[in-house]
Amino acid sequence: MEMCYCLVVLFDSTHQALRGERALKEAGIPHAVINTPREFSVDCGISLRIGAETEETARTALLEAGVTFVDILPYRTRGGKR
């Protein structure tokens, strides 16, 4: 099965995750709402998956929108989807 190297934006609340989704959508940054992978220990069960090439623009969009996020970490997933 093909491996996908991407990044996961982690949040400490669902509210911030939904604000983050809105900020990325408004900035035109491709993303997906996903269940937080088990290996990441955070309080929120929702994360955003983004492509590695969009890290800086995503980080800027989130910060400019005032979204609070825990971290943006690399993640390997199966399936080849981004």
Characterize the structure shown.
The chain has 82 residues and is an alpha+beta fold. The chain has a single domain, classed as Alpha-Beta Plaits (2-Layer Sandwich). Helices cover 28% and strands 33% of the residues. It has two helices and four strands. It has helices spanning 14-26, 55-64; strands spanning 3-10, 31-35, 46-51, 71-78. Strands 2-3-1-4 form a four-stranded antiparallel sheet. The longest helix is centred in the first third of the chain and has 13 residues, at 14-26. The protein is globular. The chain starts with a strand and ends with a strand. The mean pLDDT is 89.
Low-confidence stretches: none
What's the CATH topology name? Alpha-Beta Plaits
Count of discrete structural domains: 1
* Quaternary organisation of the protein chains: single chain
Total number of beta strands: 4
Outline of the structure:
With 82 residues, the chain is of the alpha+beta class. The chain is 28% helix and 33% strand.
Produce the secondary structure layout.
Elements: E1 3-10, H1 14-26, E2 31-35, E3 46-51, H2 55-64, E4 71-78
Antiparallel strand pairs: 1-3, 1-4, 2-3
List keywords for this structure.
82 residues, alpha+beta, Alpha-Beta Plaits, 4-stranded antiparallel beta sheet
